[in-house]
Amino acid sequence: YKGLGFRITSGNAIAVWCRVNGSDQYKISCAAPTDEAWHHIVIMYDSTTHYQTLWLDGVKIGDGTCTGTGTYLLEYVSTTLTIGSGNTSGQFFVGSIDEVRYYSRILTPEEIAYNYNSGAGRYIPYSIAGIIGWWHADEGDGLTVADSSSEGNAGTITGATWVAGLVIPDDDISAYTKSITTERGRDSDLGDVQVSTAELRVVNTSKNFSPEYSSGAYYGKLKPMRPIRIQATYGGSTYDVFYGYITKIVPNPSKKQQDAYIHAVGQLSRFQTKVTTELLEDVGEDEVIAAIIDAVERPAETIPNSLDTGEDSYSYAKFTATNGLEALSHVIKSCCGRVYDKADGTIVFESRGHRALSPHDASVYTLNEDHYSMTYAYGERELLNRFTTKAHARTALSTAEVWRNWDTPYIPAGETLTINAILAYPALSITTPAATTDYTANNQADGLGTDRTADVSITLTEYAESIGIAVENTGATGFYLTFIRLRGDLLQETDEGSSTINDTDSQADYGIREDEFDSALLDDLSDAQNRSRYLLARHKDPHAEITVTLRPDDDTKLAAMLGRDISDRITVIEAQTAVNADFFIEKVAHHFEPSFMETQWTLSAIGVQDFILDTSVLDGDDVLSY
C-alpha cells in the first residue's frame, strides 16, 4: 500500500497513515467498533500541511501531522485508489463497504455532522462541491461500480462479492404523531417569496423526542437541518404534503402534557443566506434564478428544480452578498413571475404567462356551496393605480482602469503581500497585470532607486465583492511596491430612468395608490413601461380576497384537498357573497389529526387575463402581455 489511507489493524484499531519517502507514518489510531453495525468514517488530509483528521460517526476522534521533507506519495497523480484492500497481497478488509465519496477539498465539521445525521438512507451530502469520486455500489452484480460524480471514475471489482448494502428506511414517526400543520405559498400574487413551514406534535411520554435523552429511540437523529418528509396515503395513492428541514425540537417538560413539537421549514429556507452570482450576460429570468440556486450552499438534493423558460432578457445580471430569498423576490418582481417550493421539495419558477396556458386556462375543481367555511373581503389591499418601474442602462467599457492602489507597501524578500481590491463597478473581465504598465517596484519608496519590477510575481483571485491580488517578492532583498492597478472590461451604469403608468379613472374613484419598484435587472425603459402597464391592468380595480376551508365530506373532496396545488385554477360558487368565479390557489395549508383533516386555500382573483391568439376576443377584457 502507499499514499494515504486507513486500515483495521490486527489489534482491532482504526489506523490512519501516510507514506513519506517510502516509510509509513501512523499518526492517528482508535479502537474500531465491534457491534457489527454500519458506521460512518471520514478521513481528511491537507496536502499542504500534511495534517490529518479522523472522524467516526460524526465525531472527531483524532488528528496528527505527517513530518519530514521529500515525496508524499498521495500527491502522485498516478497513485491508484483502492477500496477494501491495500496494494500488498493478502491485505483485505473483512466486512462490508458502501456509499464511498472522495473529495478534493477539506470538509467542515458542520458538513461532516450533516452527512452523518442526514440518515434516511438517501446519503445526500451537505454539498457536492469537490466530489471527484462517488460510488453508491448499488449495482448488485457485475465487476464495475459506477461513479456518480462528474469525473467518471468508475471502479473495478477484484475478488469482492456483492452483499446487501446499507439501506436504512426513513424513520417513520407516524405512530407518535398527534397533529401536523403545514403551510406553503404566498398570501397574494404580489407577495414576496415565502418559506414553507411545518409543525408536528408528537407523543413524548417515553422521551423518544427529547434530543439529549441518550436512551431515546431517535437519540442522535433529532438535530437541526435533518430532512423531513410528510406524506398522506389515501385510496391507494400517496400524496406529498411537505418536504423540508427540521429547525428545532421542543419537548414539553410539563407532567400533564408530555408532548414534543418538531418545527420545520421548506426547501427555500436554504436561501436565507447571502449569495453571490457570477456576472451574467444576455440571460433570461430563468437563468438568473438558476444562478441563484447554484450560488446557495444547500444539500445536493436529487429532487429537481422546475423552471419555466424565461420571457424577459437582461443584458447583465449579478447579485453580490445578497440574501437569497431577497434575490429571488427581486427577480420575480422584475419579471412578474412566481417562485415557490412544491410539496415534494421541488423549487418551482413560473413565468408571468404560465397561468394563461394549459392546464391553468380552465378550472380543475369546483366548490359549489360545499366548502366548510369561507372568508371574504372586498377592499383596498393590492388596489394600485399608479405603477413606477425604474430601469438602469449599463455599458461595457473596454480595457478601462477599474482599481488603483495609492500606497507604497514594503515587501520583504521571499514574502507575499495580499491586497483586496474593492471594485466600484462589476467587471466583465480582468486583464492580467503587465509589468511596468500595471505595476512597478523599487528599492526606494519614492521610486527613484533601483527598479525591482522584474522581481514581482502577481496572482489574482476573484472573490464575492473584490479581487485578491497576491504580490510576491521573488528577489533576494526587499522592495517597495510603488504602483499597481487593475484593468478590465468595466460594466458602468450610464443612464437611469423610470416609467410611470396611471389609471385616472381608478385614481378618481379611490385616490392615488402607488407602487414603486427599482429593478436591478431591467435596463430598457420600454421593458419598465411594459411591466408597469401589465401590473396596472391587473390591480387598478378592487378584487375579492377569499380563503376557503375544506373538510373531507366525500372521496372526491378528500382527493382534491390532498392533490390540488399552487396555481391550480378552481371555481368558487357561494350565494351569500354572490361569488361565482374562477380563482388561482396561492397558498395551501393543511392540518391533520387522527380521524380529522382540514385544508385551507388562499385564493387570488383571476381578474384581467392575458390575450391569447385564437382564444381571446378582440375588444374584449383580455389585455396584451409582454
Distance between the termini: 65 Å
Estimate the strand proportion: 35-45%
User: What would the average pLDDT be, to the nearest integer?
Assistant: 87
Helix/strand structural class: mainly beta
Number of helices: 6
**Which residue ranges are poorly predicted, with pLDDT under 50 across at least 5 consecutive positions?**
71-77
Q: What sort of overall outline do the alpha carbons produce when their principal axes are compared?
A: flat
Helix content: 10-25%
Radius of gyration: 31 Å
Structure description:
By secondary structure, the protein is mainly beta. It contains 6 helices and 37 strands. The strands form 10 sheets. Strands 11, 12, 13, 14, 15, 23, 24, 34, 35, 36 and 37 form an 11-stranded mixed β-sheet that branches. Strands 25, 26, 28, 29, 32 and 33 form a 6-stranded mixed β-sheet that branches. Strands 1-2-3 form a 3-stranded antiparallel β-sheet, with no helix packed on it. Strand 13 (227-234) and strand 14 form a beta hairpin. Helix 2 packs antiparallel against helix 3 (324-335). It is flat. The termini are far apart.
